[in-house]
Design brief:
The protein is globular, with a radius of gyration of 22 Å. Strand 1 and strand 2 form a beta hairpin. The termini are far apart. The chain is about 50% helix and about 5% strand. With about 475 residues, it is of the alpha+beta class.
Length: about 475
């Protein structure tokens, strides 16, 4: 089959994956380094969370291989390591967000690339290159289907994550245009996941499944397995099936009002321009919970700090936020840590009580604290029918002595507009490693992450993220 038999988007994306130069700006490489540090930081304590702990005996029984698993001494096959590490990376919901795709990007891309890197003579420079490429493809396709792909209930981490991981894996493997096209196309058959899984073990599993799917698609394509040529934009392709039959009407309606470049159309020119990793950046998480909470939490904590407020000073908290954000926060009376991460009421009550929200607030024993539960009744919300770029989340505090304070947060801490600096990111790493007291390699891992030279083998890093043998 000749290259011109592919649909225009698939051909354009595959050609860019195979042929794009590696002369990335230092700013892009710096963000990629930070993404690697942040993802490994959350993977280590995440490996012992509910979903990864249950997954481990299953995936380890499938057999060993050349790829390392985080916080474990045993090794796995590349797809198995991608599955386990991806699930661990998303388990705490402390991993970054990527706006063009409306997805958790690094929790999928990094585990996929680490798993493959263990099998090849690949360097950290190869990993960063493939990460930038995979993120770009995830973003470009995400812009072609969002915001309606996500607002209609698809978990983009699971769907677009698999496609981005396939592109990144194809790049790391050095696949040509034809095989890269097959890898991207194959990944659409391995992509799936609904937002109805939020608050369950299946939600973090989505990141692992997407990472595994991307690795498998690239390895299958490398072996010569072929795939359909119109799986992105054909009448039964991803764009139509994962948005709806009204996709063209929606795209027309979006003209002139797109946010994060989401035009609802799959562009086929200038695939690498603008470069998403620098143009849009990543939202590094300040809090270990759903990103839809972060603007409200930032605003609440900012008002408390500015006015030196304590819990007893606040009678009521009203949050007015885009409906798409509040629909993600569906658990008003959470009974599990996973549900609590998707609860506006619990998370803001914990912030009112503690003056912050951290990993300890989502431990099982913390959820039923009577003093926090009592505060949940003070939290109210109002759904606003607007895009997140059209309406900044408003926080209104009614004080016990009468006055009402308010603020509005358009972009959370950790976003490009309000970035965490490198020192703050490093403190997050230290906090996460401290939350994994049985992980004995913390010092060696931090030493390795402090010197991420492009020429170092990926294997040298993955060796430090494992648990020593007994």
């Amino acid at each position: 089959m000749s290259d011109d038999a592919y649909s225009a988007p698939l051909q354009a994306y595959a050609a860019w994956v195979a042929d794009a130069g590696r002369d990335w700006p230092e700013a892009a490489l710096h963000i990629a380094r930070r993404a690697l540090i942040d993802t490994i930081a959350v993977m280590v304590p995440g490996a012992d969370d509910s979903a990864p702990a249950k997954l481990w005996p299953v995936v380890s029984a499938w057999g060993s291989g050349p790829s390392r698993a985080v916080a474990r001494s045993e090794t796995l096959s590349p797809p198995g390591a991608a599955l386990f590490n991806g699930t661990a990376a998303h388990a705490l919901d402390f991993d970054d967000n990527f706006d063009p795709a409306k997805a958790h990007a690094s929790a999928v891309l990094v585990p996929a690339l680490l798993a493959l890197g263990d099998t090849r003579d690949a360097s950290l420079g190869d990993l960063f290159d493939a990460y930038i490429v995979g993120l770009q493809i995830m973003g470009v396709i995400g812009q072609g289907v969002n915001p309606f792909h996500r607002s209609r209930g698809w978990h983009a981490t699971a769907t677009l994550g698999a496609v981005g991981a396939a592109a990144a894996s194809a790049r790391l493997l050095g696949l040509d245009t034809t095989r890269s096209a097959h890898a991207i196309s194959l990944s659409t058959s391995l992509a799936g996941g609904f937002m109805s899984q939020f608050g369950s073990d299946a939600k973090p599993l989505h990141a692992g499944l997407a990472a595994r799917g991307g690795v498998e698609a690239a390895l299958l394509a490398e072996a010569g397995i072929t795939a359909g040529t119109a799986t992105l934009d054909g009448p039964t392709g991803l764009r139509t099936l994962m948005v709806g039959q009204d996709v063209e009407d929606l795209a027309t309606a979006m003209e002139g009002s797109a946010e994060h470049g989401q035009t609802m159309r799959l562009r086929t020119e200038d695939i690498g321009t603008p470069l998403h990793i620098t143009e849009h950046g990543l939202k590094v998480k300040r809090f270990p919970n759903c990103g839809s909470l972060h603007r409200a939490l930032d605003g609440l904590l900012a008002l408390m700090e500015e006015h030196q407020l304590e819990t007893r000073d606040i009678e009521r908290v009203l949050v007015r936020a885009p409906a798409a954000h509040l629909r993600n926060l569906m658990h008003e009376d959470p009974q599990t840590p996973a549900e609590a991460k998707f609860s506006l009421e619990y998370s803001l009550a914990a912030a009112l009580h503690d003056g912050n929200v951290g990993l300890a607030d989502y431990e099982p024993k913390a959820l039923q604290r009577p003093e926090v539960r009592a505060l949940m009744d003070r939290i109210t919300k109002e759904y606003v029918d607007a895009l997140e770029s059209e309406f900044a989340t408003e926080i209104h505090l009614t004080l016990t002595d009468g006055p009402v304070l308010q603020t509005a947060i358009a972009m959370p801490v950790g976003s490009k507009a309000h970035p965490m600096d490198d020192a703050q990111l490093w403190r997050k790493l230290e906090t996460c490693l401290a939350a994994a007291p049985t992980f004995a390699n913390a010092d060696a891992l931090m030493e390795e992450l402090a010197a991420l030279d492009l020429g170092k083998p990926i294997r040298q890093l993955t060796a430090r993220m494992t648990a020593p043998k007994d």
